[in-house]
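Dear colleague,

Thank you for sharing your sequence with our group. We've completed the structure prediction you requested, and as agreed, I am returning the results in plain text so they can be pasted directly into your records. Please verify that the sequence below matches your submission; if there's any discrepancy, let me know and we will rerun it promptly.
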Amino acid sequence: MEFWTAPQMASIHKMLNPRSIAIVGATPRMQYGGRFLAAALKAKDRVRVYAVNPRYDEIMGVGSYPSVTDLPEAPDVVGIVVPYDRVLDVLQESHSKGAGSAIVISAGFAERSVDERRDLQAELGAFARASGMRISGPNCLGLANVKHDIWASSSSRGASGLTGPIGLVCQSGATAFGPFLVRAVESGIGFSYIISTGNEADLDFADFARYLLDDPDTRVIAGFVEGFKEADKFLDVARLAAERGKPIVLIKIGRSELGARAARSHTAALTGADARYDAIFAQYGVIRVQDYDELLEVAHLLAHTPKPGVPGIAVVSHSGGISSLTADMCGQAGLDLPLLSEAARDGINGILKDFGWAANPADVTGFANSESFPQIMEYMVNDPRMGTLVVASSGADSQAQQVISQRDRTDKGVVFLWTGSRDAKAGLAQLKSARIPIFYTPDKLARGLQSRLAYHTWRERRVADGFATAPSRTAPQDEAIAQALRLGYSTLSESESKQLLAAWGVESARERRAASAEAAIEAAEQLGFPVALKVDSPDILHKTEAGVVRLNLGDAAAVRMAYAEILGNAKARAPQARINGVSVQEMVGDGVEVIIGVSSDPQLGPVLLFGSGGVMVEVYNDVALRRCPITHSEAQAMIAEVKGARLLQGFRGRPAADLEALKHTLVQISYLGTHMQGRLAELDINPLIVLPSGRGVKALDALVVLRGT
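Please find the predicted structure tokens below.
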């Protein structure tokens, strides 16, 4: 599916690179309309700026027009700062004038949680899409083309000389032009654009991120989001970002409403919303961080250091304590600090003599601020096992210049851990000006380096393997879905669920459904003792708790007694339940129990779960998650993530399980989740028995919950 058109990108381009701006609701007072006008006028030598307010003839030295219709030209972008109930009229008038795009600062829409305000916001979005005049907002603070110093924003803050390769997209305008802008100025971190999207009636995070992927001056996309309107659109941006080699770094806030309702399946209970985001971000190469500083520092690191040729980290400091703590944090983050080569160790020892410690990490004491320091760095960075050099210090201008020179003559990454005052002028200002990535605490340094290494490792593998795509549905799969929907109820019985799964090649334990005790005995004899008996009902979801399961029944008498007990318990504990009969199933032994499921996230779409079997999966939440569909290599990675899955390799004399059949089943279930196109709410296969190698898998129980029936 194609999410973006050339006219849409052209409208965004006009919004971000305007030659003319009109502010409807401009005012001489420094409120939202006045601040927008004042910000735009800073670029009046390059951008034609018009005020629109019928109450004034002139505002801030520019003529004020009664309406958009009266403007001498069609503006590239219209900033709208009027009461919420006038916004749509202004948009329609602007479109009639031929305006290219609009930034709606006005608030009072869906954020008010009033139905009519939500409806009005929906009208804004519908108008934008129908007219082709695209909208940022409402309830946003505007945006800034930082690289050309054009600020189309109602923020009271602005900055010059802040140009850099990071494109910042925030749903919160106060966050974009507040803590991010302030911290970026303090840290010397530059942006290409700053974009606030507000309520996203029309354009959303993914739309602006898609534009930034085409921008040659943007190397990293940084974001602050609560959620995504369309998961597939966001993931399409992530795929394209991987192809282009432009990392996406995000703070993701907010929680899904899924946590507030009772889950009907084990899968839904085991997949918390936050865990889903973590897993899917990792699957698509999106780097998730936790706070403002980390987002800026990691984005800056990715923008200003090359892909590490080897994973090794070299650390050098003037202090043994600082270098040791840094090494500890790197170790906890899973990073490698290799031993120095003999040549590097001997060379550094030749400089230090009887002082410091020639190792990795290196403690070079007073030599950190000497003429010998460049040679020490050279020994460390030239070690073939080192891919990145970390300098932990708080040196003067001379040391900063040495580090900058080292960065300029190597193809390896050079990063600074600043250990002095953040208000320091000596050294720190030079490092910032030279765009040396700077961290202020060892833990954030380590997490940043780990994120960088993980991203490049992921991308290299992803570019080689590609992303998964589900094949077209087959005719039997179409019929299986239609048959499930024809039932007319949302929760399918076990047998009905297994019929759906069969269309995707998932084999189940052999079974017969019986409507009497005698029929159950006959079925058991056909299947072969021992057997299991279960009630088959779409209304009794947790059969063991309801007392409607009996296992290892070895003869006809046991089957007859179990049949009566199961029906008796079903009627006593769920008197209103629909009973399709009693399922007689073969007992399947000699295998490893696992769980496979799919749950539908309202923002992320179908999420696949794999976990170890039995009660321990819920005790330890021992699961792996991916967004459907997945590749075979992703299936293998899911299995490797689950600790209990080690049993599949053979344990205490047990044979190794059929891992190939399990991987194939995971992929097929991921296709099912995709093929259902939003009609699947939850799916549980619990347990799935993985038989010894070469014998496949069998579903012993299954539950399908449909949406919209």
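Summary note from our side: Residues 255-266 have pLDDT under 50 and may be disordered.

Kind regards,
the structure core
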